[in-house]
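Fig. S4 source data, part A: sequence.
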Amino acid sequence: MVIKMKRAGEGTVIFEKKPSILSYAAVVGKKEGDGPLGKYFDEIETDAYFGKPSWEKAESENLRRSVMHTLEKGNFKPEDMDFAISGDLLNQCISSGYALRGLKIPFFGVYGACSTMAESLLLGSLIISGGGAKNILCATSSHFCSAEKQFRTPLEYGGQRTPNAQWTVTGSGSAVISDAEGCPSIEAVTCGRIIDLGVTDIGNMGAAMAPAFADTIKRHLNALQRDISYYDLILSGDLGIIGKSIARELLLKDGIDVGDKYDDCGAMIFDPNLQDTHAGGSGCGCAASVLCGYILPEMQKGNLKKVLFAATGALMSPTSTMQGESIPSISHAISIEA
């Protein structure tokens, strides 16, 4: 077996035979459909329950629809997939497990919080380039109501949202990566490190996750001996408006000026002036739906040539919060080329 990848530095791998992203799709809720990127999504569901009796089942149905759109768009059958790699925010990743249980695809359940889409693509690329698979389905999801219920307070409580709070995206994104030729493709990946600077405010996730994003970007550029000019777009996962500003400052302190090449999925998906989402979007479905609904199609059209997608995740839980723990965070980077 010929290995088609090589290490390029701490946590960074560059692919000599680049895994291709052959198909992708994004399904979102009404609020996301009303946002600036609404016209790019494959499906917009106006019923927050997705026709199901609970928020949790709604999230699972959202993920299932995204996966089915992805398979259909690529003319794939479930049996064409060697593995599925998916995760979400709910306890024991139940959205993924229940969404995919009927497809009979060998399954890896992963948890990277809101970095899960990048983690799935990273792991899938390593498996494919190591010769372990031909086609892998990567997916994730989130739902505003199920996330509020699990991590903060049930909606019925009517709690006041702080100005620095973000709005969990009701959405799902999925993609098929393959060893077959195709465009766009994954050129290199950098696995994130757990970074914890002691932030304890669960209403300020951008501040908690921005240091992890900055750390991964610095390590990625150093490992590959690149600067920002190499990429058309540097895209963080869901730092939101506040976290995006913090990330800029952190990178600038290390001499990295991202300028107008940097944007954030959480800042892109909602209109802060019209939609009252405070600091922007968050959740696994935020980065996944922006990537699969907007960024990858733009790359396929040739409007973007090189994108560094670095989704971010806060690795905390309701249990750790109740124990007074701080919020450890992570960011995985995927270098995508058209």
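Fig. S4 source data, part B ends here. The two ends are 27 Å apart (CA to CA).
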